Amino acid sequence: MHQICRKRQGIEWMPVRAHPSEPKGLLANSAHLSNVESKPNFHTQAPTELTLAYGRGAAPKLVRCIQNAGSSAVGSDESVLRFKAIEQSLELMIGAANLACLVSAGIVPALNLAASKDLDEKIRALAHVALARLACDRSARESMLASGTCETLLATAVDPAASVRSACLGVVTQLGTYDDGRKALIAVHFVELLLALCRERHDGGPQTPEVQAAALTGLNRLCKTDDGQAEAIRMSAVPTALMTIASEHPEVRCQSAWCLALTTYEQTEKAVALEGGVMPKLVKMLSSDDVEEAAMRQRLRIAAAAFLMSMCNGARMEEDKPHPMGVAVDAGVCVALLPLVDEAASLHRMGEMTPEASDLAVYATKCIAALADSPKARKQFAKALPNLRELTTSTELALGKHAQIAIERITWTP
After folding, report:
1. What number of other Cβ atoms are within 10 A of residue 414's Cβ?
2. pLDDT in tens, 52-73
3. What is the phi/psi pair of residue 9, to 5°?
4. Phi and psi of 176, rounded to 5°?
5. What's the number of domains the chain is made of?
């Protein structure tokens, strides 16, 4: 408190620990301010200086600084203050009490306005970052849904600036993590917009990989509900994901595989995926040798294995159409799955099984069990039996269970 008063009056303040001779205590500081070094006028500050002394009491002041977006030119004093106010708000949102004060002060409508109307691209993007942070809190999320944030996001998703579009899709991803957010986004037909963003920009040009990846991530969140999944299938999500899975960007391929895994439960969608020639691409993704980053390579393999499992489960194709399992075996999926089992067994022996490696091994053993209905596949999977027997002793219950099922399917004889 005394530090703030002295700084406001332009008086140099030094910590007591560094200077023991400095007067301390309420009476000493009051006397020091009023009798010794008090100045008649406040220290002159720049018009772009954000003068805030308290955390909780700053919420209304910050909201007032954020409001009236779009009424000032880029680089003006008001624009600079608005940017600083949003930055300060993000710092205060770390604490639950401060976040509640900001929501009560009306920060959500102010951010909606800044995200859609401000002339500065940086402020629009930063406002979306703040909205994404607010979406993680239940009371703030309720305020967002009541204040028309979903409608605002519909407009900003086609913003001319790519940074703003990516930030907008980040808010969609956060909202899509929760049931109430998913329902609100589906209600305003966000699924259709996300699929359109995956294909091209609003002006008809090629979409950037970053925006494609963000749009697919948001779409995958919405597809976790029956309504979102049905809407995505109706709006041609499978052909769209088949197009983006061929991207050179690893994150786009990863999210495309998850999208296909969520939308290929029915036979019609499986047939569309097969006609799109997806199996050779899956074989390549199961190895992902072209990706240098280990974490990204692991994510790609998990997504590919999940999609393969979705294609193989419950497949009942018509006689005149190729069966997913037969196409997978002919494409070399069995050979691609064997190294995954070897790697899982090696990690199990060394006691270094991670959650990500366990997920990949579970998907791989499920795929092996499904493909083992084919005699040709059983012959190839026989090489994996020693490793599968080791995995049956894993402390990961799901992995041990599916490894045992895979062994039974491989060793089955008519």
Report:
1. 3
2. 655 557 888 889 888 876 667 7
3. -90, 0
4. -70, -5
5. 2
pTM exceeds 0.90 for this model: no
Q: What share of the chain is helix, strand, coil (3-state, %, to 5)?
A: 70, 0, 30
Could you read off the pLDDT of 190-223 as tens digits, one per residue? 999 999 988 877 666 677 888 899 999 999 999 9
Domain that holds residue 32: 2-36
Asked if the structure places residue 196 within a domain, the reply is no
In this structure, the number of other CB atoms found within 10 A of the CB of residue 355 comes to: 8
Domain assignment present for residue 74? The answer is: no
Pairwise CA distance, residues 260 & 103, whole Å: 38
Q: Note whether residue 376 is domain-resident.
A: yes
DSSP 74-131: TTSHHHHHHHHHHHHHHHHTTSHHHHHHHHHTTHHHHHHHHHHH-S-HHHHHHHHHHH
**Reported confidence tier of residue 110, pLDDT bands at 50, 70, 90:** very high
DSSP assignments along 308-360, one per residue: HHHHHTT----TTS--HHHHHHHHTHHHHHHHHHHHHHHHHHHT---HHHHHH
Is 398 a member of any domain? yes
Return the percentage of the chain with pLDDT > 90, whole number. 51
369-394 pLDDT, tens digit per residue, is 999 988 899 999 999 999 999 999 98
Please calculate the CA angle 130-92-53 and round it to the nearest 5 degrees.
130
